[in-house]
Amino acid sequence: MTVAVSANGTIELTGACPVEDAEALLQCLLTTPAGAVDWSACESAHTAVIQVLLVAKAAPVGAPVSGFLRDIVAPLLQRRS
C-alpha cells in the first residue's frame, strides 16, 4: 500500500498512488486529522487521491517526485489550505 501512517502520525504517500488509495487516504485523514501528509516519495497520484487532498484541504509537505504533482497540483493544494 502506498498510503501509511508513520509512528509520528505523518500520513505518507509513496510510489504510484492508484485509485484504491483514495479511500485509504480518506480514512487516514479522518483518523489522524492533525497528521501532516508527506508526499515527497510520491511518484504519481490518481485524480481520486488528489480530490481527497483537495476536499480535506490538506497541504502536503515536501516536493513530490512527479513534476506534474509538484508544478501543477501542489500550488492548487497550497491555495486550499
What would your notes on this structure say?
- The chain is an alpha+beta fold.
- The protein is 43% helix and 23% strand.
- The chain contains three helices and three strands, in the order ββαβαα.
- The protein has helices spanning 20-31, 47-55, 67-80; strands spanning 3-5, 11-17, 37-45.
- The termini are far apart.
Helix content: 40-55%
Average pLDDT, to the nearest integer? Answer: 92
Strand order in the sheet with the most strands: 1-2-3
The helix/strand series, from N terminus to C terminus, equals EEHEHH
Assign an overall shape: globular
Report the count of strand segments. 3
Q: The biggest beta sheet, please?
A: 3 strands, mixed
Which quaternary structure do these chains form? single chain
Radius of gyration: 11 Å
Distance between the first and last residues' Cα: 26 Å
- Strand percent estimate: 15-25%
The number of helical elements comes to 3
Uncertain ranges = none
Based on helices, strands and strand pairing, what is the structural class? alpha+beta
Give the secondary structure arrangement, pairings included.
Elements: E1 3-5, E2 11-17, H1 20-31, E3 37-45, H2 47-55, H3 67-80
Parallel strand pairs: 2-3
Antiparallel strand pairs: 1-2
Helix pairs in contact: 1-2
Short description:
The chain is α+β, with helices and mostly antiparallel strands and 81 residues long. The chain has three helices and three strands, in the order ββαβαα. α1 links the parallel β2 and β3 (37-45).
